[in-house]
């Protein structure tokens, strides 16, 4: 059985080999060789006002706190730059409507598109059309099914979230091989949920634990409460619980309170301010949460500006903006909650 550390090294090595192969062949995902060669590589040059760029932004409907934070952070980031003309499409969970929004951006000949797709596979074809029209696409959070659909992909680390949650639980329960570990996932059909669960299982395996009871919810308060009630009824004893999403965690905590259960500790996911205040209080079963950054679209706006203006990232020697960026998934506990609470989103 390979240890988690060994698997990580193998993944890093495989990624390095792929990157090297792409460089040697001169073929990169979303080749935009007709763009202006990047020039500015210092922080001062990048922050300096340049030619005005029109950026189209489209994302899902803000039907829970994390997505609301994603949208508001993107708008706030664009407002920082007088050389950004931001065109915002109405948030939607209808893939066909979002496709038509991207088509409008293409017809309007925007300089770049920042796209958090309601469904990555469904939006892939129209994103490729934008790329073929010479419009760089910045793919946020939910990946397209083709590397040719985006110039830059910026993601939270879903697999890493699971690893972080599992590692924390291992540290707390590693000396108890009979511990009962439960899991409340998000929407099971989404690759991001599958990645989170796989990372969680892999981390637990590394310390001899496994998930004993698992249910799925839907990232909503109501869904979290219903799933938690089901889980608690099926599992008379639990030692640790990981809930994938702090928005649905509001409902999960309500169900736990209604059931009068407090024999276990809980780890959340995403990093909402609500969850962090629970951790801070010291009076809750919620002892930790794993960050899934709500800054991704804001980062996408900033990267779209750099790409459209032919600039690079100031902290890298490389003269091109990278084509893939994966953000970290740190664990927030009572020991470091003060560091993360000021930038957390409200559920």
Automatic annotation (TrEMBL):
Q: Is Protein biosynthesis one of the keywords UniProt gives this record?
A: no
User: Where in the sequence is the signal peptide annotated?
Assistant: 1-25
Disordered: where is this region? Answer: 27-47
Biased region (Polar residues) positions are 30-39
Where is it mostly found? other
> Keyword set for this entry?
Signal
Q: What is this protein called?
A: Monosaccharide ABC transporter substrate-binding protein, CUT2 family
State the organism named in the record: Mycetocola miduiensis
